[in-house]
Give the backbone structure.
Amino acid sequence: MITTAIRGPMEINIKEQLDDVFSRYNKERGNLIPLLQEVQEMFGYLPEETIQEIADFLQLSNSTVYAVSTFYTQFKFTPTGKRTVKVCRGTACHVRGGSQVLREVEKQLGIKPGETTKDLGYTLEMIACFGSCALAPVVVIDNNVYGRMTTTKVGPTLEDTKQ
Ligand code: FES
């Protein structure tokens, strides 16, 4: 059954939105990944109902679409926050206080890694290494890199991202 998905405070009619997306694609199996990406971009994740709709559109089985979408870590099945906060758990960041930074982020947001705030404002993730070890400890919020992060900088940095 097609219902609605929540993205931020706004309810979105899934069927209407998908019809718009499908109108721009041919019914070819090769369009599965681009379709999954576009649908995720639209809703912030892949609502369960979209798997069925995409399968029907491409004339594939639900299990095929589900198998492909779970194979790639880029696809998410639960709502994510408007902003994603990624804290590095790599060695260089760890030895320079990354764990304390993570604890402060958890405290400020009230969530643990893998969770999203109730208002869908933030999702918290941990990353193995951003490849910016010289800037350790590193936090990335959306695509912005915050190097040499400290526990005292966490609050003001998160506050800045609200604007
Ligand atoms: S260990 Fe954190 S950026 Fe490399």
